[in-house]
Amino acid sequence: MSGQISHHLSPTPAPGLVTLEELGHLVQGREIDTVMVAVPDLRGRLMGKNLDAHHFLTKLPGGPEMCAYILATDVDMNPLDGFELAGWHTGYGDLRVVPDLGTIRRLNYLPGTVLVHGNAVHPDGRPVAVAPREILRSQLRALAVHGLQARVGIESEFVLYKGTEAQLRRSGFRNPTPVSPDNLDYALDRPPALNAFFHDLHNALHEAGAPIEAIKTEGAPGQIEVAWPYGHPVGACDTYTLHKHAVRHIAAQHRLTPTFMAAPQTGTGSGLHLHISLWRDDEAAFAMRPREELPELLQHSIAGLIDALPQLVPLYAPTPNSYKRYVRHSFAPTNYTWGRDNRTCAIRITGHHACTHLEVRLPGADANPYLALAATIAAIVYGLNNHPKLPEPCTGDAYHAADPLPVPRNLEEALTDFQQSSIALRAFSTPVVQHYARAAEVEIEAQHGQVTDIDRKRGFLRA
């Protein structure tokens, strides 16, 4: 890929995004001077470089080079052993990030800047198999074998706290104060600080070509939920990563700090709910009327999710904290159940007629959206290929269901199942499973042997 930036990826942007030609005019008019080229890392965070806009348009051959370790580190970006992609054994060489020119977005919270998502490729142009965007695309290709496409909507939950990041860091993140002190679920009489934040976030996402469907306060103090309309799966995940980037910057402007931890405080859980439907030639494959028998395709999809998702947990619950969200009567599932319009289940059928779809409630706010969605698609494809038996639906409180398989109690349990899973190996390949197994091991090792506040509280005077 020599010469100027390759145009073969998504050349026609979605409405609201900036075309390459429009970017040229903005640069010429000195409205844009910086192009932020980003690739999602293992945790779904945007990593990359700020490029001079004129250089991006005229001089850059195929995309910027970046150290391959951006896809092989811990959360603190420490170089680590155990990853085949990058390490001391490789000399920490480069990969290339090829801009996806259908994703150019103007960021009103960073003046003069556009963001463009990119695809990680090896120096010879081969896609990096362990890159989250490529992992999701590989599962979409497997779904396409069945003549099906997925449409996806994402719900993001996070908690917003008073004070700057520096102030919370100085306190050791102990006892942070939520921006609202009470349960304001669905409330419209919100504190002024929240209304101002909502307004700025709404405008930023709209101007970046990622208009929201709804934004609301949630059930925990300071908790917020943002939802987007249905769209292309990769595009939905790109929007979510843009959203997290925007939330952090806009919150800082308001002297607030967000967290996307799955369980930031005892009794508070934040989810990343995936709404998914399947389509064949613009026909809704899940379409059904209330109380009708489930279409066969929907039955196979749910059965695949119930059978396969227990073996893919590190892809949607990647940290030890993830498992502290799975608490009874918390609206986070504790077992692998399904039901019609039942929020106590892991898999919820919702919507009507052509809008019938599945809500997967297992991923937490700390999940990488590309990986969580890839696990979901892989489980559906498993169901379509193997037709596992569909268990009975849960019609009441799923937290008290006796038969379903429980969600793993911790990351260690989930990792063992993932490493030994033939479903994971067939769907994702050995190199991908090993890469994300190593990422889980790093998370486990980071907390092993650490003395916590609970240790001191329970043992300081009583041991």
From TrEMBL:
InterPro entries: Gln_synt_N_sf, Gln_synth/guanido_kin_cat_dom, Gln_synth_cat_dom. Signal peptide: none annotated. Belongs to the glutamine synthetase family. Keywords: Ligase. This is Glutamate--ammonia ligase. One of its GO terms (biological process) is glutamine biosynthetic process. Transmembrane segments: none annotated. SMART domains: Gln-synt_C. Pfam families: Gln-synt_C. It comes from the Bacteria. Residues 132-463 form the GS catalytic domain. GO terms for molecular function: glutamine synthetase activity.
